[in-house]
Design goal:
heterotetramer; A: alpha+beta; Aldehyde Oxidoreductase, domain 3; four-stranded antiparallel sheet; 8 strands; globular; B: alpha+beta
């Protein structure tokens, strides 16, 4: 039931929202989470996102399926980009729709916590001095954020 | 059996993928890692901290004790940092 | 620091998001909550929203100020419509921006819980049979949702 | 002093607002409600369940024991259902 796309291109959140909600009278709430590339105080020129094609789609579909089992969702869209992404550009969109707000809020938050830990994407920094920086390290707080749903 | 590598695991091993003929007695992901580490210092480097490297069998996350019999594609990669 | 608007007209979430995030490298996350008019299984032709001009702006500004004290927000936009709103149309937008996702999620959820209970708006149902229905009753669960932030 | 009414409180009283000259001895919102209820059955109807009707003084929510001295505008309305 969910829409999942892994792509290099930017996405259009407004069009995705319209596709999810247009012409429907049963949706009372949508929560759209967008994750952006930060410049880390001017240090970064870009983030390079590597992914595991095939598994990225499959794993996000599994997480989305879990969310749809846990909350009465009326729609769920996940778009995750890969490749070179500049500061200020969006990286990920999670859009959850439901009759009442709590389900949409919780499902979107759950999706992000699981995406961070389980979707096979890896970020590497490109620096404004022209060099290629380090692979971003996974954060313990992201692990902890996922634990709260168990 | 196809092996695929990502991010710094890929960089340390120096290839994106390879096809291997599995020797006898390799039953689990942990066995496979132990065997790969005998293949050269690039593998030793990639798996120097075994607890950090994650594995997937046919696009599904698995633990080190997962059996690999029947696997078509096994992936090794660092902790994920998407989202 | 927050943008607050009370208006009869529809709003453009994409334009509001662009206004909040455009040209910035410090924002890592936005959460956009949109509340829609439901048709309640075909029973409703519209919701009529009455509000208390002056107090609506003031009260939402107070709630937004509380949110900005509690979370390290990089932007907060709240738009609440009044007048006759048809099923499928948006009623309210809360848009929160922050460096990391948790602040944006929590602030948007907090804003909605407080808006529901404290922003001076009242909904009345207009029915598809042409009659004017009842004033919508406040829900105990909305009260409970607000309590969790105290 | 200006009084304003919203939603079904407004409908029951039959007006959106009115300006009143406050009699002696009305110190709080609760006093004001008690006095309004003596002004006619439309007020009695609006405030029949006093615990339900909310009040604001000069655009700020207040409890029934809030003093009303110095208020410019006092509002009465049902529990809110925005959002």
């Amino acid at each position: 039931m969910s829409v999942i796309r892994i792509q290099a291109e930017p996405f259009d959140s407004a069009a995705e929202t319209e596709a999810l909600t247009g012409g429907r009278g049963d949706i009372g709430a949508t929560v759209a989470f967008t994750g952006f590339c930060r410049d880390e105080g001017g240090r970064l020129s870009a983030l390079e996102l590597e992914h595991y094609p095939g598994m990225a789609e499959a794993e996000i579909a599994r997480i989305a399926g879990d969310a749809e089992e846990r909350w009465p969702l009326l729609g769920l869209t996940v778009i995750h980009r890969f490749g070179l992404i500049r500061p200020g550009e969006p990286i990920v969109l999670v859009l959850a729709a439901s009759a009442h707000r709590q389900a949409a809020f919780e499902a979107a938050s759950f999706m992000m916590d699981y995406l961070k830990n389980r979707a096979p994407f890896w970020k590497r920094e490109h620096l404004t001095d022209g060099t290629t920086g380090a692979w971003v390290e996974a954060k313990a707080e992201d692990d902890a954020a996922m634990e709260r749903w168990i | 059996m196809k092996l695929v590598y990502f991010a710094w695991v890929r960089e340390r091993i120096g290839k994106t993928d390879e096809t291997i003929a599995l020797p006898e007695g390799i039953a689990t992901i942990a066995d496979l890692v132990r065997w790969l580490k005998t293949k050269g210092e690039e593998y030793e480097y990639a798996f120097e901290n075994e607890a950090v490297v994650r594995a997937a069998i046919d696009h599904v996350h698995v633990k080190p004790d997962a059996p690999i019999a029947g696997a078509r594609e096994i992936a090794f990669f660092p902790p994920m940092t998407g989202g």
